[in-house]
Amino acid sequence: MKNIRIERVVNFIFEMGHLKREKNRGFALAGVKEPNAIAEHSLCAAQIGFILAEMENDKAGEEIVSAEKVAAMMIVHDNAEARVGDQHKVGARYFSKKEAEQKAFDEQVEGLGERIEVKWKGYLEEHDNRNTKEGVVAQDADWLEAAFQAKEYLDLGYESA
After folding, report:
1. Alpha-carbon distance 161 to 48, whole Å?
2. Residue 3 burial (CB count, 10 A)
3. Burial classification of residue 142, based on how many CB atoms lie within 10 Å of its CB (0-12 exposed, 13-18 middle, 19 or more buried)
4. What does the pLDDT look like over 70-122, one tens digit per residue?
5. How far apart are CA 35 and CA 129, in angstroms?
């Protein structure tokens, strides 16, 4: 268990529970009374990403995108929001959301073990920069999940969504 600190792992697992309570602030700004939680977004985006990757593979007739890697990216891509919250686009204009999230993410993975730290930092980098096929599919899944969520809110009568 190289570089794994059990206390950090336990604290991290508890911290991830915050994502069940951290709400999507963009939809709150649009007037949605009970917006979805970040954990809900991440789960749905992971499933969408897995499906999109497999669709790419079916189209190519071979595996060109790792669906498992895309799903893993989507599971961890918003972890930092457990610390810095979900910042809507209006508020994010006034500070570096990416910088704050990167700092929080780096601190979160410290002590979880070198394998996890390296892998998850790589996932976040690929997702944010869209510099691999998996990163492109993951970011598409992220945006697509938000679009489906907006449509659901629209159907529920939230015209601003």
Report:
1. 20
2. 13
3. buried
4. 999 999 999 999 999 998 888 878 888 889 999 999 999 999 999 999 999 99
5. 27
- DSSP designation for 156: T
Taking a C-beta distance cutoff of 8 angstroms, is the pair 142, 45 a contact?
Answer: yes
Q: How far is residue 38's CA from residue 40's CA, in Å, rounded to a whole number?
A: 5
Distance CA 152, CA 27 (A): 11
Which two structure tokens, joined as six digits, stand for 80? 């930092």
- Tokens matching residue 54: 């497999």
What is the pLDDT at residue 47? 98
Which CATH code fits 6-155? 1.10.3210.10
CB 83 within 8 A of CB 11: no
Distances (CA, A) of 125 to 19, 26, 129, 131, 145: 20, 23, 6, 8, 20
